[in-house]
Amino acid sequence: MSELDKINSIFDAKISAIKTKEELQNIKTEFFGKNGQITKQFKTLGSLNPEQRKEFASKLNKIKDDITNQIEQKNFEIENLEINEKLKNEKVDITLPTRAYRQGKIHPVSQVIDEISSIFSEIGFSVAEGPDVETEYNNFTALNTPEDHPARDMHDTFYLEKNKKLLLRTHTSPVQIRTMLNGKPPFKIIVPGRTYRCDSDQTHAPMFHQLEGLHIDKNITMGHLKGCLDYFVKEFFEVKNVKMRFRPSHFPFTEPSAEVDIGYKVENDKIIIGEGNKWLEVLGCGMVHPNVLKNVKVNIKQYQGFAFGMGIDRLAMLKYGINDLRAFFETDYRWLSHFGFDPLDVPTNYRGLSK
Ligand code: PHE
């Protein structure tokens, strides 16, 4: 076997075993490097006579081309393999749910506002809103609470001006006034929103949330109020029966007025809503005072109705077993990821509110 044939068969044996680019680079050096087998053969050309040189050079060039081609072919195969391997490992299943939305959570207060809105919308209430900064007229005077009325002190108001004309609303009731001034009866609204009082402890925060309800129409009675609240409490706490107690109370803007307690008991450190012989105050309510209706130009000979106001934060604490109100407003992500809700799990009455 000639020297060239030997080189050729050595190459053939080696190339078939090659799997990586690194090995390929080594074989390239082995044959075409400074001291490579092929390079060495080219160096012998000068010592040959013209006849031999011609024949040897043509054979050598043929082998060189052949080896070069094979190396290129191998390179191509290896690159292909690498790409396929990469595609296999980096495959993305676009049908999988994304992870991003799971990182954000809906705050229990937002969730409860959505739940309550869903419950009341089922029986024909629509959602109204008003500003956090109110006039003292809307917040107090129009609601039958004159200047010297003790209720103004009870509310621990944050006034924004020395002359007390502007304040942070102490309840959502001023939206009753705004709604009735801007429209014509009947009115059937709920008003979720932020409210402010200068007060802070485990169950009171200077900013908290209320939900107002107002239903004004012909022939609305306290019976409607009771039915409406009974429906709400059962739906909200997702229980069949709820013991409810209407306790006589006083608000300047309702007459008669009541506070509503719901029955509960504690079993294994858990609050069970609806039964038992303990009572929890959840809201204030009553029949809208004729003076309020007069202030907003509603004809009291034709129209009357009820209003109620409840603390959203307290309802959220009760329903979801949260025992410190202040945690609501601390923006602690660990707390939120524990008590928060999935953004895609929008509460509806049909799908279930909190499941
Ligand atoms: N606005 C009252 C409060 O904040 C609650 C309430 C609303 C009572 C409507 C009766 C009717 O205490």
Considering the chains and any ligands shown, give keywords for the structure.
13 helices, eight-stranded mixed sheet, 355 residues, two-stranded antiparallel ribbon, alpha+beta, 10 strands, BirA Bifunctional Protein, domain 2, 21% strand, 2 domains, binds phenylalanine, rod-shaped
Please give the radius of gyration in angstroms: 41 Å
Query: How do the helices and strands follow one another from N- to C-terminus?
Result: HHHHHHEEHHEHEEHEEEEHEHH
State the helicity in percent bands: 40-55%
Q: How many beta-strand elements? A: 10
**Low-pLDDT regions:** none
The CATH class label of the largest domain is: Alpha Beta
CATH topology grouping of the largest domain: BirA Bifunctional Protein, domain 2
Strand content: 15-25%
The pLDDT mean sits at: 89
CATH homologous superfamily annotation of the largest domain: Bira Bifunctional Protein, Domain 2
- How many domains would you count in the coordinates? 2
Morphology: rod-shaped
- Secondary structure class reads alpha+beta
Question: Could you say what the CATH architecture of the largest domain is?
Answer: 2-Layer Sandwich
* Tally of helical segments: 13
Hetero ligands: phenylalanine
Tell me about this structure.
The structure is a single chain. The chain has helices at residues 3-16, 21-32, 37-44, 50-89, 100-103, 108-121, 136-139, 151-154, 174-182, 222-237, 290-295, 312-320, 333-339; strands at 126-127, 133-135, 166-168, 187-196, 207-217, 244-251, 254-267, 270-273, 278-288, 304-311. With 355 residues, it is an alpha+beta fold. It has two domains: 3-89; 108-351, BirA Bifunctional Protein, domain 2 (2-Layer Sandwich). The strands form two sheets. Strands 1, 4, 5, 6, 7, 8, 9 and 10 form an eight-stranded mixed sheet that branches. It has a two-stranded antiparallel ribbon with strand order 2-3. A hairpin with a 2-residue loop joins strand 6 and strand 7. The protein is rod-shaped and about 130 Å long. The structure holds phenylalanine (PHE).
